[in-house]
Amino acid sequence: MENLFVQLSLIILIVLGVSFVMRILKQPLIIGYILSGILAGPVFLNLLSGNDTVSTFSEIGIAFLLFIVGLHLSPKVIKEVGKIAFITGIGQILFTTFFGFLISIALGFNWVTALYISIALTFSSTIIIMKLLSDKDALEKLYGKISIGFLLIQDVVAIIILIVVSSLSSGLSAGSLIVSTLVKGVFLIILLALLSYYALPKLSHFFAKSQEFLFLFAIAWGLGLSSLFFSFGFSIEAGALIAGIMLSMSPYSYEISSKLKPLRDFFVISFFLLLGSQMVFSDISNLIFPVVLFSLFVLIGKPLVIMILMGFFGYGKKTGFMTGLTSAQISEFSLILIALAVRIGNIPVEIMSFLTLIGLITIAGSTYMIIFSERIYSKIERYLSVFERRELKEKEFVEKEFEYILLGENRIGFSIMKSFIKMKKNYGIIEFNPERVKYLRRKGINCIYGDVSNVELIEELKLDKAKMIVSTIPEKDVSLMLLNKVKGKNKEIIVIVTAKSVSETFELYNAGADYVILPHYLGGEYVAGLLKEAGVDKKMYASVKEKQLRDLRERMRK
């Protein structure tokens, strides 16, 4: 026990040291986790060999990650993006397999190896992308929802291919395995549908009476369904995701999500450690050119096909670009597939190291691309119009002139919108959530669907007579672009933007902001004012509490 404790402590110290260096160099911590795995792996310190604890931690981390993603993925979201997710998922698989196979044959690989390589290149890493989207608060954005959708489609295809290859290696019938899996799946769906309708609402309401009880219930529910799916022959990931989706309609989903995030962040590190430790590189000097070529194919070719498909079906160039970036790496399923093919003797052993190196390059490359996606987009935006149709599904032209404009109605924008209504101002709202747009329009509120970070949308706003524009989007690059464009068209307009930190606030003021909303600062100021006014007067706190509850109930209803 002491040995294992010391071993885990050393591994955590390595992760801390490498992550510290990454932080100083302003690099993504995910890269640090993978590099830590390489250091702790068999090539260097060999601390992870035969360590089942780290492997178990990794599975728990993946389960928590996908469970939290499922909490944000309600049936309404699936309905909203299901069609385009299916089209992009299948389209990208067919494109990458076909052209990857042609490139492999041209490079001299035999057709069996070429087929395995081309299939392995098609899959993108659900785990890594979920983590990056979550860190960027992009799970609720349109491109985040579509990305999750097509990644899940890819995972289903990957599981079917693994079943087929496994059956070939064991001599079993692939058809019987797939039929057996489908029968089990139908049984599970019926069971969970009944449980979700009759038992889950009562259970979640009962456990929500205590915060600790709710925390334990969430862990037991997520890990329990993951284990149930695993025992039926499905993946832990599928069980965790469905467990989250089943709770996504609960009023406690956000509370559960916030409570589990620290656990997710701790355990998911183990996944990246294992990924790094498995990257063992043999002598592949003669394969350097194919590695570079295929890495570029994954980093550029896969996003291009997503952009082409989304542009064809009426999505804007930015949504297509952001969604495409999430496909620009190979998946853990790719490495599992190649390892299985090597084990059964279908392809030579050096192909494992070959794909592993492509995996490291593309995972690192796509991580940077996603983190700095806004900056990259702003540099190449004018060249991406070729991927955009004239009639867009997600774009509306602003035909009416508004004196007061609100960008982003959700969260803090809700109260600002109410102020505009009470003041009886000529106001308009631009919102990126299509479901929210439909709801506001039904209520007779002037709401336009659009992406605030789209320069063209800002340029279309008729700002000559506008008096005020308020942005609740907490992204610095978007706010700086907004200030530049808006102040350029109307110097007298009051521009209020939102920041995440004190340093960003100073930067936005220097760029010309009239006021910067800093939520944490305003919260502290409000409480300080309340303390000064109310003191220890319980009646006044009861009055403020009742008002807050009324507002919160109104938000919950809407």
Distinctive features:
558 residues, mainly alpha, Na+/H+ antiporter like fold, Rossmann fold, 6-stranded parallel β-sheet, 23 helices, 6 strands, 4% strand, globular
Explained architecture:
By secondary structure, this protein is mostly helical. It has 2 domains: 2-7 and 23-387, Na+/H+ antiporter like fold (Up-down Bundle); 404-517, NAD(P)-binding Rossmann-like Domain (Rossmann fold, 3-Layer(aba) Sandwich). It is built from 23 helices and 6 strands. The protein has helices at residues 2-24, 29-40, 52-71, 75-106, 111-122, 126-135, 142-170, 174-207, 211-231, 236-247, 253-277, 288-312, 317-325, 332-343, 350-371, 373-380, 413-422, 434-442, 455-460, 476-489, 502-510, 519-534, 538-557; strands at residues 404-407, 427-431, 447-449, 468-471, 494-498, 515-517. A 6-stranded parallel beta sheet has the order 3-2-1-4-5-6, sandwiched between helices. Strand 5, helix 21 (502-510) and strand 6 form a beta-alpha-beta unit. The longest helix has 34 residues, at 174-207. The radius of gyration is 25 Å and the shape is globular. The N and C termini lie far apart (53 Å).
